[in-house]
Amino acid sequence: MARDAAPAAPYSPSRTTREVLATLLPFLKPWTGRILLALAFLVTAKLAGLSVPLVLKHLVDGLNLKADAANLMLVLPVGLLLAYGGARLSERVFTELRQLVFARVMARSSRTVMLKVFRHLHALSLRFHLNRRTGGVSRDVERGGKSIADLLDWTLYTILPTILEVTFVTIVLVVLYDAGFAFITIGTLLVYITWTIKVTEWRTKYYRAAIEADSTASSSAVDSLLNFETVKYFNNEEHEARRYDGSLTLKEEADVRAYKTLALLNIGQNAIITIGVTALMWRAASGVVNGTMTVGDLVLVNAYLIQLAAPLNFLGMMYREVKQALTNIERLWGLLDEQRDVQDRPDAQVLASRHPVVRFEDVRFSYDPRREILHGVSFDIPAGGTVAVVGHSGSGKSTLARLLYRFYDVTGGRITIDGRDIRDWTQDSVRGAIGIVPQDTVLFNDSIRYNIRYGRVDATDAEVEDAARAAHIHDFITSLPEGYDSQVGERGLKLSGGEKQRVAIARALLKNPAILIFDEATSALDSKSERAIQQELDRIQEGRTTLVIAHRLSTIMNADEILVIDQGEIIERGTHADLLARDGRYAAMWKLQQEKAAD
């Protein structure tokens, strides 16, 4: 089964652990005050916890007072008991205060990074988004954002407290007793850390393989569900299940290897801790037998060992979780490393023209350097004028619209707006000046109102409805049980092709742009609807600079100029009447469509 799944390309880490942490630090800088306060609470909590065994030692030793000190016995245990309770309460209170102060840091840092990545993904060129796998990218963002909070949580809540606790306990044992306790404690810790780091580094590759397989499986599932209708059209449910199972098989094998190596890691860690704790207890018990230590001393050493054993047992898991979090964050930074193919120049200006002139000057372009799509295309769209482009599929018509939108930059020649290279204007202002009705309309899984208002998000309900009327879809919307609040479904699948296209037209009208692009805007409409909407489109084109990419020649008869493009070159140009009189390629296309219409 696994052969049906296309394995993802292996992920190569590009940053060291230090580099990943260094990249994260700027996001924490605004929270320096909270971090320092949380650290203060952390140290206070650990000092309070450290005093608990000391109070307990004196309490136990105090119980051995002789009978002639009965009066003191009435006071001393009460004071020690209160101190014991106060120390334990203080440890918990300051631990929770640390969490209370630091919670905002974790949540806000994660939010800030995820928002930055989200914005960066939207800023990347169309080339990146055509090559990406949506499910995989989504999983990388989700895991990376969660891992930032996890990393901060593990670092401040577990790793740092454990280091402080081991340090404090070692100092106390050396001061109160002898260096033998410190040697055993430090020796155990060094062996434990060495084992943990070596094994964890070895097994990190299995975790990377597991998350790579998880991303592949997620991509496969999302891709299949997004194309639900296509799967149904060809009865390929079982094929999709096998393909998805192939991805899950890869994930299963990677997970099993990760679990097996984890078991080996845990066995070694437990063995090291057990040996170290036993050695410390043996030394303390020998001291009591020899008379060099009291029972209270034995209780103190035992209490410290209990305090240290739990975090030390988790230290391996901490290190593993931190390494996994760093791997996930590294993949998140990998998305930020994606370079923008299309960037604003440092001195780019804001386009504010309401009657722009658009000019293509010897434009050349290729998606792949080995195959050029446009070969020196030149034409003008005068202010308020309309230029139509016709041609067979794959001739390069839609590429013109993508270049005007600056989804890509030209590889030769230039496009100008009002006489200035389009690259001299900011991308935002250029795209803000353009409204487009694409051939393939994809809607958000939200209400009809939301999808129309997307053309201008601050538009009022009345303006939304006016745009819907202009697109001849208002009556249809009001006939629905929920009216404008009706949900359109994933990618607008609850609407027909014609209904989706009219929503797209309404959305473009609401934007009220200076430049209009119609990319076969009426291709999904029937003849009656097309005639009604075409009249409205002709009306709204007045005063706007318009580029029409058309399949139906009847929709462009009134264009100021018609370009016939073939294999990336303009082979004919002129008005409708001129081209018919020339009896060339355009005339042949017109005749063929008229014959089909007559049939």
Rounded average pLDDT: 79
The 3D shape can be described as elongated
What gap, in angstroms, lies between the N and C termini?
Answer: 50 Å
CATH topology of the largest domain, which one?
Answer: ABC transporter transmembrane region fold
Q: How many distinct helices? A: 18
Task: Flag low-confidence runs.
Answer: 1-13, 67-75
Number of β-strand runs: 10
The oligomerization state is: single chain
Order of helices and strands: HHHHHHHHHEEEHEEHEHHHHEHEEEHH
What is the radius of gyration? Answer: 35 Å
| Secondary-structure class | alpha/beta
Tell me what portion of residues adopts beta-strand conformation.
Answer: 5-15%
**Number of folding domains?**
3
CATH architecture label of the largest domain? Up-down Bundle
CATH superfamily of the largest domain: ABC transporter type 1, transmembrane domain
Spatial strand order of the main sheet: 6-7-8-3-9-10
Helix content: 55-70%
